């Protein structure tokens, strides 16, 4: 009887762990690499639609801006509005540090709330290795 009880507790524990793993694995995470500021509008519309579609499974959503366009991040009038919309959706917009260095853009000159990553392409690949859905536009 004692062994039956122990076996039952063990099976219930395994079942609970498997259910937790299944719940975690349903989280949908996204990363998008872009080189054009105007693409932020459709990217944010996409994030909004995916957030509604995924519901509680909507996870992390990151946008990485790379290339020469980082020079325009501080001077383009639409960027602060995109950052505000992104924040309301739980989307992070980040600038590629490698691009900032290459095009002599000081991270301090970026709009308030914009984060940086050391290397946008590497960051994208690292997130893909973690299971993120990724596209480059």
Automatic annotation (TrEMBL):
Residues of the signal peptide: 1-21
Keywords from the named record: Signal
InterPro entries: DsrEFH-like
Superkingdom: Bacteria
Protein name from the UniProt record: Intracellular sulfur oxidation DsrE/DsrF family protein
Species for this entry: Mesonia hippocampi
Taxonomic lineage: Bacteria, Pseudomonadati, Bacteroidota, Flavobacteriia, Flavobacteriales
